[in-house]
Amino acid sequence: MREALFSFRRLIWLMPAVFAVHIVEEYGAGFPGWVSAMFGQPMTPDTFLVNNAAFMVILLGLTAWASARPSALSAFLLLSWASGNLFWNFVFHLATTAIFDRFSPGLITATLLYLPVSVAVAWSALAQRVLPRAAFVAALAIGAALMLGVIWGGLYHFAT
């Protein structure tokens, strides 16, 4: 049986691709310096790259697992992780731009790539019944908690 072009198993591969483009934008636009200026906590370019490399490895691993071995568990864990890295990251960039009245490096790809890819993956997950609606909402909530944990840990406790 031929898999549909917009199947969940295919669409999820867009997530690591747009994550990579987003990291290039953030790095090139000076996100580590912006974090230091806005939050008063140091973030070195090396710390930024190491953290995002780790996030990418996790995202690629979860994407590969959900694609190769589809299950409710693999989809749930992928969507939990990815919603924090993509959808809630979009919210972070949008909110910090508004709060600080200063462009947040990463806002362009978060808006043009993260938001539409997040919506497309969510739509496919729900339409194709990859996860029940309640599990999908739980994955989004966990993703929000993960994003808050990254902000709390990265900006206020583990910054170097």
Question: What labels would you give this structure?
Answer:
160 residues; mainly alpha; 79% helix; elongated
Could you give the topology of this structure?
Layout: H1 8-11, H2 14-28, H3 31-39, H4 45-68, H5 72-85, H6 87-100, H7 107-127, H8 133-157
Helix pairs in contact: 2-4, 2-7, 4-5, 5-6, 5-8, 6-7
Give the helix level as a range of percent: over 70%
First and last CA, distance: 51 Å
Q: How big is the Rg?
A: 16 Å
Sheet with the most strands, sense and barrel status: none
Number of domains: 1
Overall SS class: mainly alpha
Mean pLDDT across every amino acid position: 92
Order of helices and strands: HHHHHHHH
Give the number of DSSP strands: 0
Q: List the uncertain runs.
A: none
Count of separate DSSP helical elements:
8
What percentage of amino acids are in beta strands? under 5%
Net shape: elongated
Please give a structural write-up:
The protein has 160 residues and is mainly α. It has one domain (8-157). Helices cover 79% and strands 0% of the residues. It contains eight helices and no strands. The protein has helices at 8-11, 14-28, 31-39, 45-68, 72-85, 87-100, 107-127, 133-157. Helix 2 (14-28) runs antiparallel to helix 4 (45-68), helix 4 runs antiparallel to helix 5 (72-85) and helix 5 (72-85) crosses helix 8 (133-157). The longest helix is centred in the last third of the chain and has 25 residues, at 133-157. The protein is elongated and about 45 Å long. The termini are far apart. The model has no long low-confidence stretch (mean pLDDT 92).
